[in-house]
Write a structure and sequence with these properties.
The protein is of the alpha/beta class and 256 residues long. It contains 10 helices and 8 strands. The structure holds 2-phosphoglycolic acid.
């Protein structure tokens, strides 16, 4: 099974900084056949970063999109406008859900818009601290996956990536515990299997939330974890390289 290393740069780096960071990422970039590396800069930098990474085996993703394909939606960016530039789009990130109040319906429509425009959605799901302490993690994850993937045709399920990101672990200094990660990822995978049967195995499920080069190798080796979605750790080229190498070593070991 492949491992995914995805960098979400969030609202960091100017256009110039993004291109020079992309250039530094390419320098000595570890290449492994079974590691899928994707970077997600801010919208304004997508075009210049696309020029830098072209033909270097790195995927490019946007951090969000709107679900209509065109029209009077001031300030929004349509999946239809992104499709010439990127292959992936992050949808339903915790900050979209909780800072910008996106609900499950918005997120579902965005997943549909991405697929309609031949982009691969990276659907993020995760419980808040309150939901966790009231013992609702499982239900929240089942609902978010069920709603986000509702109406996805089964022949398109292989275009989906899901990231489990507990809201309370994002931007903190503590990732979830091993057993929390394994059980949450298992819940997500079971829900996908419930909806899509055997084809569920085509959907990589990643972990995100304070993952970094120190804990990343360990987390990626946990049962069911198909890779990492990284915020802060993706903003340091050395650390990001290290994470790609850790993923590469794991895939090589799995084959050997
Ligand atoms: P973090 O962010 O790695 O900085 O915790 C993860 C994310 O929001 O995807």
């Amino acid at each position: 099974m492949k491992k995914y290393i995805i960098g979400n740069w969030k609202m960091n780096l100017t256009v110039t900084e993004s291109s020079s960071y992309a250039t530094s990422l390419l320098y000595d970039l570890p290449a492994y056949p079974d590691v899928v590396t994707i970077i997600c800069p801010g919208f304004l930098a997508l075009s210049s970063v696309a020029d830098v990474i072209r033909d270097h085996g790195i995927g490019l993703g946007a951090q969000n999109c709107y679900w209509r394909d065109s029209g009077a939606f001031t300030g929004e960016v349509a999946a239809a406008q992104l499709r010439d530039l990127v292959q992936y789009v992050i949808i339903g990130h915790s900050e979209r859900r909780h800072v910008f109040n996106e609900d499950d319906r918005d997120i579902r429509f965005k997943v549909q818009a991405a697929l309609r425009n031949k982009l691969k959605p990276i659907l993020c799901v995760g419980e808040t601290e309150d939901e966790r302490s009231s013992g609702d993690t499982e239900h929240v994850l089942e609902d978010q996956v069920a709603s986000g993937l509702l109406n996805v045709p089964s022949d398109m399920i292989d275009k989906i990536i899901v990231a489990y990101e507990p809201v309370w672990a994002i931007g903190s200094n503590a990732s979830a515990t091993d057993s929390d990660i394994v059980s949450a990822i298992n819940t997500v995978k079971e829900q996908i299997q419930h909806m899509f049967g055997d084809k569920a195995r085509l959907v990589p499920v990643l972990y995100g939330g304070s993952a970094n080069a120190t804990n990343g190798g360990h987390i990626m080796a946990l049962a069911g974890v198909d890779g990492l979605l990284l915020g802060r750790a993706s903003l340091d080229a050395n650390e990001f390289h290290k994470l790609i190498s850790l993923a590469g070593e794991l895939t090589t070991k799995e084959q050997g």
